[in-house]
Amino acid sequence: MSIYAYLRVSSDRQDLHNQRHGILEYANTHALSPIQFIEDTVSGREKWLERGVGQLLNQTAQASDVVIFSEVSRMARSTLQVLEMLECCVRRGINVHIAKQGMVLDDSMQSRITAFVLGLAAEIERELIVLRTTEALAKRKAEGKTLGRPKGRQSAHLKLDTREAEIRSNKP
Question: Resolvase/invertase-type recombinase catalytic domain location, by residue (predicted)?
Answer without folding.
Answer: 2-144
